[in-house]
Amino acid sequence: MNHPTSHPIGTPGVRWGDAEVAQWRESQAVRRGYQAEVVSVIDRLRPRFDVAEYGRLEYPPASYPLFVLRNRDWNDALPIMLVTGGVHGYETSGVHGALLFLDRHAAQYAGRANLVVAPCVSPWAYERIHRWNPDALDPNRSFRENSPAPESAALMRMVAPLRDRVLMHIDLHETTDSDESEFRPALAARDGLPHEPGEIPDGFYLVDDTAHPQPAFQRSIIEAVAKVTHIAPADEHGEIIGSPVVAEGVIQYALRELGLCAGITGATYKTTTEVYPDSPRATPEQCNAAQAAAVCAAIDFALAHPG
Asked: Which of 37, 93, 245, 295 is spaced 20 to 30 Å from 120 by Cα?
């Protein structure tokens, strides 16, 4: 892969201001449709789930409704399982893996768990196949009090009444070649820093919580996903994306401190999935299926070990 050494927007070594952010935003073109590809699927699921609009993003000229789906047989005595996707809008299988789970697998948890699924947290970025929102903010570094990212703030408001009742939260992501070719160089330019090329891991991996690790939970997901697609190996330094591998296909981040989506609840079981859709060994269908398998394994483990 060829790594860019500079970014076309801004001055090297100088953090972007409003003018550079505006220039970047104007360079982003709609490349696919939220209504056609996501909302239409949610509409087909309405007969089986309670669907609510938990917020709306006003990015003129467009307005994006944000949807959450819940099981119809909600029972306050049952544990809550939270599934989020599309926090980074360009990570396609996060969105469609969540929808696939709802369509094909959610029924098996009827009477056993309450499901809360927000399949596309960042629809503006979904349409433009980008990581950021229109203000060049990463929603997955913005899950904190007084969040500057409307996507993150809306999800936190929706989750707030449930926060201390969630048993399991799985946040569905991808790591793509464009991380290295496009998004990391843009991040470095935005922040006025040099871009340091890295490696993209080939395969599926998980991000556990440094503060409250759950190795058996992570292992159960890895074992389930390995039946669908391959697991990312550690690099020559024993790392994945610069973090030490603590078990096969597992690294750890400080979820809450970094403002990551997976840290927004008090759930006992938390994880972030990462699929590699650009691998020659994986198809888009496999990536979606891997995400759905991860969700099922996560719920199954939580139900078997409620704590």
From this structure: 245
